[in-house]
Structure formats: C-alpha cells, structure tokens
Amino acid sequence: MLPRSLNEIYENLRDYAVMVNASAPDTILGCCALHVTWNDLAEIKSLAVSEAAQGRGVGRQLVEHCVAEARELMISRVFALSYKPGFFEKLGFVRIDKEQLPRKIWGECVNCSKFMECDETCLIKQL
Q1: pLDDT tens across 69-112, in order?
Q2: DSSP single-letter state for residue 3
Q3: 88: part of which helix (H) or strand (E)?
Q4: What is the CATH number for 84?
Q5: Rounded CA separation 121/82 (Å)
Q6: Range of the domain at 97
Q7: How many independent structural domains does the chain possess?
C-alpha cells in the first residue's frame, strides 16, 4: 500500500469502508475503498485485512460492499491493482493489461517506490 499524507486521508475518507469485530467494536478486521475515477469507472483500493481475520471472508465482504456501492452509483466497471490476483478472480474480476485503463488512474502511482517496475496485476469487473 502507498503511504498517505494526513491531507490525502481526509480527502478520501468517505471512499473507505471499515469492518469491525461485532463483539469487540474497537477491533478493526479490515478496510477497503471504492474510489470513483470516471463516470463509468471506479477503483477498489487499499484492501487490507488484519492477520487474525484472514481466511474468514472479510476481504470478500469488503470487496462485495464496494462493488454493491459501485452498482448503486451506476458505475459499469470496477478495477483493482493487486499482488494477489487469484483473490479478485474468485470474485469475478478478470486480468487486463494496465494500458487498457485511462492514464488518469496512474496519478497515485508516481508516489510508489515500484513505479517504474510495477509488479501488480490489473483486474477489472464489468457490472
């Protein structure tokens, strides 16, 4: 994940969904964001699940929440950049070449230490 400044966090706070443990509300299980990039395109980003919650469906529920939100907004495509493409493929995403997406989406990538040698897989889901 990319480091975020406090300003970036506040600017994008409403993009995030956070899942907490129902029996211990102070315990965060995971988070995920849906960031609208264009009228028909949104990115699922910053998916993180605590080690203790991995393998329990938390990531799946968070992604499904974001996809449902995209549908409510009538967004027709949702993409993700991931080091674990198999996870997204199980949820109906398919691999695509990054070059198929508008250049606008790469605005944050310049802040990544791997910018010139990105090894994330790009996946997309048609809604």
Answers
A1: 999 999 999 999 999 999 999 999 999 988 888 765 665 655 55
A2: -
A3: helix 85-90
A4: 3.40.630.30
A5: 5
A6: 6-126
A7: 1
